[in-house]
Amino acid sequence: MNNASGERRGALPSGVSHFGEMGVRLREHDYLADEGLSTAIFLSLKLGRPLFLEGEAGVGKTEVAKVLSRILDTPLIRLQCYEGIDVYQAVYEWDYARQLLHIRAAEAFGGEDRERVERDLYDREFLVSRPLLQALEHRGPMPPVLLIDEVDRSDDEFEAFLLEILSDFAVTIPELGTIMAERPPVAILTSNRTREVHDALKRRCLYHYIEHPSFEREVEIVRLRVPDAEENLARQVAAATEKMRTMDLYKPPGVAETLDWTEALVALGARELDEQIVEATLGSVLKYREDQQRAANAGLAALVSGVGGAGRDA
Amino acid sequence: MLDAAVAFGRVLRGAGLRVGTDRLVEFARAIEEMDPSRRDDVYWSGRITLTSRPEDIEVYDRAFELFWETGGGAKARPRPKVSLSVPQPDRSVMPPKKTVEKNESGEEAVRLRYSPVEVLRRKDFALYSPEEFAELQRLLADLRLSGALRRSRRLEPAPRGRNDPRRTLRGAMRTGGEAVRHRFRKARVQPRRVVLLCDVSGSMAPYSRALLRFLHASVVAGGRLEAFSIGTRLTRITRELTTRDPDRALRQTAGAVQDISGGTRLGDAIKEFVDRWGQRGMARGAVVVIFSDGWDRGDVSVLAEQMQRLGRLAYRIVWVNPLKASPGYKPLAGGMAAALPHVDVFLSGHNFESLEELARAVAAATERGG
Q1: ipTM score
Q2: Confidence band (pLDDT; 50, 70, 90) for A9?
Q3: Cβ–Cβ of A94/B51 closer than 8 Å?
Q4: Which of A120-134, A146-160, B255-269 has the lowest mean pLDDT?
Q5: What distance in Å separates residue B165's CA from the closest CA in chain A?
Q6: Nearest chain B residue to A121, by CA
Q7: Separation between Cα atoms, residue A214 and residue B115, nearest integer Å
Q8: Radius of gyration of chain A (CA)
Q9: What is the pLDDT of residues B43-101, one digit of tens each?
């Protein structure tokens, strides 16, 4: 409490005082962010606000949290949301089996004082902490990174609860009292927009929509993440996926698919794309039968031949 | 800086973004961390703090362009004169003026200022007078659109089911640590999501107007509903329908839908829905209601393919077509014929009674190929 509250909120890595430096730091840890995303991450850390990330599947939303935990050298605590998730799976649960044993033991050894037994029963040692509580209880030089993944899959009740946690960074356990974070965790929320998340929750957060990367950036990403891929192959792959994104597919490939595909190609020893190898590896980039069909109809040769970056890069 | 932020906020609000004071303060704080003289810094600080949906971004971009580039960034202009609001078509969900006038001068409409409820229930919406629409509002108050039940993964206390250690232990405390009575929980039952795709082309106007009122009543009552208008393009109107005052909600909806009374490209619109919303989860396990006369100006094979796709995602598809009520109608026209094999329930929806039927169908939605 001796720090000014403003200082306590932020969690910028040392040496970063500008969004540009944030971008450099991200890149050092193998994540290429454009200006918008670097700014969003910078501001989120600086202002101590949760960051809400949306975008097509596979554009690297979850990756942001992972790379931040590496940069800040702090644990990544991940809460995967799903339908029906509730406080007992997200925050804490009492260890019932041990509690029952405890009661039995107290009885067997003649523990008469019922009130004391009951008090002991709700001691911290019987509490199993789930991701959100872990994030609040974390002690260390840097707050942890809390990834709340796919918020849109949870339901309204849970959203309301998240709103509370993200406002106060504290949780009240009736039997135990209020547990408060020493410093607010670096919170990253992601959504695939299967459902519109409530405005109130979004208002607590900074917001950024991640687009597919430009051609040149995607080539760079591939080079960075799959170092074994040769420059030429990286360019061909990026060009081909860029083309696929304009093909009106059910699931246009994201960066994650581009990387999967490149890895598959490298594993097969490919040094450049040709029709046969594209056909053999198409399943690692297009995951609907209809999409594969569509790509085949458009001609796999067209995917191979083209040069990317059509109008997307200045 | 705050002045400029507030003035900018006003422009954004005028353009339809929900920008609260808390957001503006955040924006001002963000700018302080950036370089206020650099255009990109201001742009990103604003976008990150003031938008919250992809749709906001386009609006934001336009507002930013206008405001900051007309000198708003350098010194705040208190009264931005530029009007940025989404173009408001003067034809709204209300029937076009012509029709109303014709109705009022027409012999029938003048006499039938107020029909008894039973008559109203069976009367075709296309023949409704404005007064009758008001009356319809009252009738709709009792009718709700609520999806068929499904099992949720959320658990609730129940006499039988899975063990509930939390409550069992609580009970055990009272009996000296002996879990005399075991408690249980089981999955809660929950209504499925209902997704409505409403054709707003010209010929459908009186019907979509009634249906939107119906929908509005259900949304306000807190149902799990999503609504889209389909025409030459797809527009999500759920948000507009959450306003409590039905007339205002309908005006807003009309504002949001830019293609009212345009032509319909059904297949393309449904494809857009499945691409952008349905496949990601909105249509999964949902009851999808399509409200359209089935006239597709686009390619019919697209519609067939997309209906099949939608059928794989949705729990049930209900198609409501007011033409079905007209004597001798056969669903042979291109679009309707192509869609029908993938439709589970086919209804008319031309009057109040058939809306009741729709509510029942959506709640039950059990019979395949009905």
Answers
A1: 0.80
A2: low
A3: no
A4: B255-269
A5: 6
A6: B173
A7: 62
A8: 24
A9: 999 999 999 888 889 889 988 888 877 665 444 433 333 333 333 333 333 333 333 33
Tell the burial category of B87 from Cβ atoms under 10 Å away from its Cβ (0-12, 13-18, 19+).
exposed
Report CA torsion sign: B95, B100, B106, B107. positive
* CB-CB under 8 Å, B279 with A250: yes
CB atoms within 10 A of CB A53: 24
Fold held by B194-364: Rossmann fold (3.40.50)
Q: To 5 degrees, how large is the angle CA B322–CA B323–CA B326? A: 115
CB contact under 8 A, B166 and A88: yes
How long a stretch of residues is chain B?
A: 370
Q: Do B369 and B318 form a contact (C-beta atoms < 8 A)?
A: no
What residues are paired with A186 via a beta bridge?
A: A145
Q: What is the DSSP string of A60-76?
A: SHHHHHHHHHHHHT--E
Distance of alpha carbon A156 from alpha carbon A140, whole angstroms: 33
Among the partner-chain residues A39, A118, A199, the one whose CB lies closest to the CB of B48 is A39
Instruction: Quick: pLDDT tens for B210-268.
Output: 887 787 777 777 677 888 888 777 888 887 777 767 677 767 766 666 555 556 788 88
- What pLDDT is stored for residue A263 in this prediction? 95
List, for residues B8-34, the tens digit of each pLDDT value.
Answer: 888 888 887 888 888 888 999 998 888
B105-135 b/e with 16+ CB inside 10 Å = b?
eeeebeebeebeeeebbebbbbbbbeebbeb
Mean pLDDT over A291-311 rounds to 75
In this predicted structure, what is the pLDDT of residue A75?
96
Q: Has residue B269 got a pLDDT over 50?
A: yes
Residues of A in contact with B284 (CB under 8 A): 194
Q: CA-CA distance, B125 to A240, in Å (whole number)?
A: 52
- Separation CA B39–CA B65 (nearest Å): 10
Class of domain A5-81+137-210 as given by CATH: alpha beta
Give the integer Cα–Cα distance in Å for B11 and B5: 10
Candidates A121, A128, A123; CA nearest to A104 is A121
- Strand A206-210 and strand B316-320: the pairing is unpaired
Residue A213 DSSP code: P
